[in-house]
Amino acid sequence: MAAGPDVVTEALADIHRRLGALDEGEPAAYIPELARARREGFGLALVSMDGHRYQAGDAAEPFTLQSVSKPFVYALALAELGLDEVGRWVGAEPSGEAFNAISLEQGTGRPSNAMINAGAIATTALVPGATPAERFERILAGLSAFAGRRLDVDAAVHASEAATGDRNRALAYLMRGAGSLACDPLAATDLYFRQCAVRATAADLAVMAATLGNGGVNPVTGERVVGERVAVQVLSVMATCGMYDASGEWLLRVGLPAKSGVSGGLIAVSPARFGAACWSPPLDRSGNPVRGTAALRELSERFGLHLM
Ligand code: DON
């Protein structure tokens, strides 16, 4: 984006103002605590590679990461184990199915990719540590390094998902039965529920996205969080799988690696330029945020960001 700071600030304010009137979709309700979200809450944020931060609306309001955690935990697993070992447990093909589908490879039981629930649970199961607490601390420390500040867990959302997450436990047991889950199913799903309940703001998410776009170096803190190769691997999977069964349409119209979450968070990365994030709880039928999708599409068109 060759645009100067004032142009970016004005573009975010304008997009925020106009899309605030877009009142479609519904906040997720299958995790009861998420149904309490403020449907009019709407924040936009953008961080450039020189660490300049822009925002509009409710960019400082916290919400839980949910699936937006998946690319970052995938990055941590890749950094620990490398692509070949991680690839033994989780694939890199779009599933063309919903985020909670049983998309397991025939024969191996390996989930299609790390962006759907099954693949994310398999990825979380790879994070090393002597105890569950140590493993979660590794995840939280990693997510915090991406954000550039210490994040925390929303205990109410964690408890709500733990009380209702039987489908994810079932996915974990299916994978364990097929030999494609590296640890106990209940341990893996509890870690996964905790990572999904980590709380951040749109402003944090934009820094996290920018870190991936900056080859793994946080552009605000200067800390190297993961290697450049890992950042490229994560962006590749986000580009093909980050928006679930709407990933093809997203790449066609927006043209940026992205990841959505059911709490209404959405990140998109313009490699070597910026990380962008949106928060707005109402979701479309694929489970992607309605305003976030429209906002990123506008930003991409306005600044000619499509990668192709
Ligand atoms: O596992 C779940 O269902 C949630 N914790 C996360 C799902 C999610 O965010 C899907 N994204 N659109």
TrEMBL record:
- Quaternary structure, from the entry: Homotetramer.
**Presence of keyword Hydrolase:** yes
The protein's name: Glutaminase
Top enzyme class: hydrolase
Positions binding substrate in this chain are: S67, N117, E161, N168, Y192, Y244, V262
Name of the gene encoding the protein in the UniProt record: glsA
- The keyword Hydrolase is assigned to this record: yes
Keywords linked to the UniProt accession: Acetylation, Hydrolase
Molecular-function annotations in GO:
glutaminase activity
Q: Which family does it belong to?
A: Belongs to the glutaminase family.
Catalyses:
L-glutamine + H2O = L-glutamate + NH4(+)
Q: Which residues of the full protein are shown?
A: 1 to 308 of 458
* Lineage top rank: taxon: Bacteria
Could you say which EC number(s) this protein's record lists?
Answer: 3.5.1.2
- One BP term from GO: L-glutamine catabolic process
